[in-house]
Specification:
Helix content: 10-25%
Strand content: 25-35%
CATH superfamily: q2cbj1_9rhob like domain
CATH architecture: Sandwich
Number of domains: 1
Largest sheet: 7 strands, antiparallel
CATH topology: Jelly Rolls
Number of strands: 12
């Protein structure tokens, strides 16, 4: 496994502008996000009751998820009425073009002060990259497991999400191998591959400039899983049909 190419908090914005992506170690979160892994640790327990994703077109039973939407404007974080997740086929050839209504995040999770600060912090990063504006935020809790021997974090393959900023937090890995993160230039040959192993490692992606994917996972010594939090921020509104 290749270790993540961590950048320190002081150079995160600079690298994000230069390369279109940046990886932060958990210790860098307080300086970048305004909250640290210790404050966020209470969130991890909310990955143990995710409902199955019933929209997988490959017939798999390996993905569990919840989804909620928010608007972040400066320090104000507002949760939106529950809505379906939708992507155009241009960005998701496998599951695009359909409204997928998942169960919402647990209110006990979204009411945590650390959750509110996490969204404020990501809004600040997006505004630093693209200019200050309201951000339409979708948060996805994912568990990929190895019930069927293999789990696919990105069954759609290498892709963009059609947003401005993507944040991928590793929540944890348990008895698995694989799950390598791959980031490529959208309009060039350069790319990086690495495996996030430390909880609350954060991968930031300028979605206009890079495509990304995660390789499948397999069990290692027993039933395993990989938990992530994916947060997308988009200017101008949510993606809708």
């Amino acid at each position: 496994m290749f270790s993540p190419p961590y950048v320190d908090a002081a150079h995160c914005a600079e690298q994000l502008r230069a390369l279109g992506h940046a990886v932060l170690a958990p210790a860098s979160l307080p300086a970048t996000m305004g909250c640290g892994a210790g404050e966020l640790s209470d969130l991890a327990g909310f990955w143990n009751d995710l409902p199955p994703d019933n929209y997988l077109k490959d017939g798999g039973r390996y993905r569990f998820r919840r989804h909620s939407s928010f608007v972040v404007e400066g320090d104000a974080v507002t949760q939106c009425p529950h809505r379906a997740h939708w992507q155009p086929l241009d960005y998701n050839a496998l599951h695009g073009g359909i409204e997928r209504l998942f169960e919402p995040m647990d209110p006990a999770a979204t009411s945590l002060p650390a959750w509110q600060q996490l969204l404020r912090g990501l809004g600040g990063i997006a505004s630093g990259l693209k200019g200050a504006k309201p951000w339409f935020v979708e948060a996805h809790q994912f568990r990929i497991d190895t019930t069927d021997g293999i789990g696919r974090p990105t069954p759609e393959g290498a892709h963009r999400d059609g947003v401005d900023l993507v944040a991928v937090f590793l929540i944890g890995r348990h008895q698995i191998k694989g799950g390598e993160s791959r980031v490529f230039e959208a309009a060039g040959p350069q790319g990086q591959r690495f495996t996030m192993t430390e909880p609350w490692t954060l991968l930031l992606l300028d979605d206009e400039r890079v495509i990304h994917e995660t390789t499948p996972i397999q069990p290692e010594g027993g039933h395993g899983h990989r938990d992530t939090l994916v947060v997308t921020l988009r200017a101008g509104g949510f993606q809708d049909p």
